Amino acid sequence: MGNFTYTLPVMLFRIVSYATFFITGALYSSPGADPVPRLVVVISFDQLRYDYLERFSDHFGEGGFNLFLKKGANFSNTHYRHSFTSTATGHAVVLSGSHGNANGIIANSWLDRETYEEVYCMADETAILIGTEEEGHGLSPRNFHAFTVGDQLKISTSGRSRVITMAHKNRSAILMGGKMADAAYWLRRGKYVTSDYYQKIMPQWVEDFNRLEMVKSYFGQKWERLLPEETYANQGADDFLGERNSMGMGRTMPKTIDGGEETPGDRFFHAFYYSPFSNAVLSEFAKAAVKNEQLGQREETDLLCIGYSANDAIGHQYGPDSHEVLDITVRADRLLEDLFQFLDREVGLSNCTLVLTADHGVSPLPEKILLANDRAPAGRVRGSDILEVAEQALNETFGPLAGNGSWLVGVWDNIYIRSNALQVKNLPPEKVEKIIKEAIEDLPFLQAAYTRSDLSKGQVTGRLGRQALLSFYPQRSGDVFYQLKPYYLKMEDGGTNHGSPYSYDTHVPLLWYGVGVNPGTYTRSTGVNDLAPTLSRILQVDAPPLSTGRILF
C-alpha cells in the first residue's frame, strides 16, 4: 500500500461520506451511477401552444409553470416532426419517441382498407369496459405498435414498478401508458373507467372516488374569470366572430355549466368537459392515485401520466386568442402548483422527475386573420369540396361508376380509393392516385398533396414532405394525403382546429424539473420524440425500441 496518513477528523469525514454515498446508491441506483427518481410524473396538456407560456407569463405563480421555467429545463424550440397533429398522434409520440410511420397511429381514426369502415384508434372489440354499467366495447392499445418508457420501466423491474395513466380522453391515457401499464383511466359520464385489458376488477379506491360524484358537484356552477376582467383585454373582445356557442355555454364569460339541463345528463357531462372543472377533478384523481397506489413511496420507481384534456375542448370552441383560453391556462398554472405541493408532501419533489408537454397546438380563428386584413389567405373550407373535385376528375377521366357510385372515402386528411371502383374499371391504383393529386392540387386552399405510391417510395421533397412521411403508415393511410395552406380550416360552423404541419400546431412546451435534469433554457431545435429517450436515460432503462429521438441531457 502507498504511504498515506489521515488525521482522525479526515478519517471520520471520509467514513461518513462513503456511508452516505452507498446509502444513497442503495435507495436510487447502483453505486457510482446517477441518481434515479422514485416517481416520474409526465403531464400532457391537450392543446397547449408554447407561446402561451410567454404571452401569459405575467399571470403565473411561482410553483406551477414557473417551477419548470425558473428552476428546471425549458426546451423552448420543441416541435412535433410529423404532419398530422392530432390528440392520438401526439400522445403516441410522447412516451414512445416514435411517429405514426412506425407506431401506426396516423390520426384519431382511419379507414380499414379491407372493410372500408372507419376505425377508432383505440378500438378493441375483445375488450370490455370496467367501472360502468353501460354496454359497449372496451378500449386498449392493441392498435398502437410501439412500446413506451413505461413499458421499458416495467420490463427493467420485472413488473415491480407501477405505471398509472389518466386523462379525460381515453386515447390520451392509453397511448401514454403503452402496452404494459398497470392501469389507464378516462372519464365517461362523470366516472373514471378503464378496460379489462388492464384489470378485471376496478380497484376499490377508484370505486370510492367515483362514489363521491365529484363531477356532478359542479352541476350548475359558474365558470367565472379567475383574474380581474381588465386583465383579459389583450385577448381582444370576449365575444369574437368565429367562436362557437356549444352546450348552451355562450360565447362570453361567465358560463353556467349545466348543458341546459335541469338535472345532470349527457349534455351536462359534455358541457363539463368544456370547462376548467374537468382538469380540477382529474388533479384530485391523480392525488388519489398517488396515495392509494403508494406511487413513489416504495422501493421501485413508479410512473404517473396525467393528460389534462379540457384545454383542447375550450381551445376548439373559442380559439387561442380568447378570454377562455387565457383563463384555462392560468387555472392550469394554479392546478400544477397545487399538485406539485401535494407531491412534495407525499413523495418529496427532490425524489421526483417532472416532465410537461402537449400533444399539439392550435390554429387562430380565420376570422382573426381576416379582421387584420380581409385579403389575407385564410378561411374555412368544406372537406366535402375536396372529395367532390376529386370525384369529378375521376368521372371525367375514366367515366362515372354505375349508379353514380362513389370512387372515394375521406377520413381526416386521407383520401381512400374504393377497391370495388378499381375492380369495376380495371384500373391500377397508381393511375387513379395521380388523377386525384393533380385535381386537388389546383384548389386555392391546398398546400400539397402526396400519392400513396410516392410516399411508399419516399419520393417527396422539402420539410412538409418529410413531415408527411412521418404520418404515413401503409396499412392505414389513404391513397392520397393532403395538407391545407396555413390558416385554412375544414370547420364550417365556427371554432378552430389543429392537424397541420405548421408551427402554430407543432410548437409545444417541453419542460423538465427534478432528478436527472440540467436546469436552463435551451433554444436548439428539439422534437417531442426526444422526450422518451431522455427520460429513459434518467431512469437508466433502454429507450423504447422504435424511438428515433436523441438524449437531451
Describe the protein's architecture and organization.
The strands form six sheets. The chain has an eleven-stranded mixed sheet, with helices on both faces. α4 runs parallel beside α7 and α11 packs antiparallel against α12. The protein folds into two domains: 361 residues, Alkaline Phosphatase, subunit A (3-Layer(aba) Sandwich), CATH 3.40.720; 102 residues, Gyrase A, domain 2 (2-Layer Sandwich), CATH 3.30.1360.150. The protein is globular and about 70 Å long. By secondary structure, the protein is of the alpha/beta class. The protein has 20 helices and 23 strands.
The name of the CATH topology of the largest domain is Alkaline Phosphatase, subunit A
**How many DSSP E strands?**
23
Total individual domains: 2
CATH level-4 homologous superfamily of the largest domain:
Alkaline Phosphatase, subunit A
Mean pLDDT: 93
Low-confidence stretches: 1-31
**CATH architecture assignment name of the largest domain:** 3-Layer(aba) Sandwich
End-to-end gap: 39 Å
Strand content: 15-25%
What Rg do the Cα atoms give? Answer: 25 Å
